[in-house]
Model the fold of this input.
Amino acid sequence: MSAVAEQVVVNSHTVDTSREAMLEVDSPGWDAAEVAAVGLEPTALDRQPSAYVRRAWQDRRRGTARPWR
Done:
């Protein structure tokens, strides 16, 4: 795991279209959106909210997620 945290800034604005239309990835409302890759890091086991998750994942490999776009 990386010791340096990456800062991600999300800017938002109102678009003149329906909520349903924005659920479609090819909606014109997304035309002005900037594409960015966001690196993902696993949550440390000692910071997981449930004992079940901490126990279930203690011997599993974590941190293999690809960046999210």
